[in-house]
Amino acid sequence: MGEEGNVIPRFLGRLGLADYVTTANAALGFLAAVAATMDVGIAARLLLLAAIMDALDGIIARKYGSTPAGVYLDSLADVASFGVAPAFLVSYTVLSEWGMDEPKALIGIAIGAVFVALAVVRLGLYNAYDIGTKETEGVQTTLAATILAAAVLAGYTAPAFLVPLTALLAVLMVTPITYPDLHPQDAAVMGIVQVLAIVLTGQPGEVFAFALLFLSLAYLLFGPRFYWQDHLDL
């Protein structure tokens, strides 16, 4: 403690509005991991909500300014929400379906661990080399988590599907493939689809979850080559 009897939290006056949104993102990641043990659909929705928080903190930071702690908080929150939480969701699904006695279940859990490790590496490399640019190398952790969550909500919950997808996304996070930032209007469309996938249930929810999965995979596969590359020179 600084001064005698001073019990004011250190973050008061040091964090901005964007930072509080970032910490909400981290909390949602924890809740998603907890929810995965009860209902994978709720867990997936919480992951998508965390992704929305991740987008909002950037918008708020650009409009109202950021703090020196912001970049560090953002990476820590992303590790929780887009590294640990989706890997836990997949791992718990693997254990629920296959059980610990199956060697393939251990492989699935190991792939989840690799996903977390490479998410950390990817975020570290982003902070070191890509901040301030309009493009980034490797699949964004937010995109990887969004694809996994959308797949679950669209009904693709079989470990035989999720485990290879997780492995592929883990590798793509650290590949030297360049991904351009989304245009604001495209990000807005994705955001609307994402919100509808979160709030709608039943068949309508599955439709929007599938749409989100389709759009995310389209960007994953075709973004580096065909997405409007000319905007990078603006």
TrEMBL record:
Primary enzyme class: transferase
EC number(s) from the headed UniProt entry: 2.7.8.8
GO cellular component terms listed in the entry, alphabetical order: membrane
Superkingdom: Archaea
GO molecular function: CDP-diacylglycerol-serine O-phosphatidyltransferase activity
Entry's transmembrane regions: 72-94, 106-129, 141-162, 182-200, 207-228
GO biological-process terms attached to the record: phospholipid biosynthetic process
Entry keywords, A to Z: Membrane, Transferase, Transmembrane, Transmembrane helix
PROSITE patterns in UniProt: CDP_ALCOHOL_P_TRANSF
NCBIfam families on file: anchor_synt_A
Family under the similarity heading: Belongs to the CDP-alcohol phosphatidyltransferase class-I family.
Protein name as annotated: CDP-diacylglycerol--serine O-phosphatidyltransferase
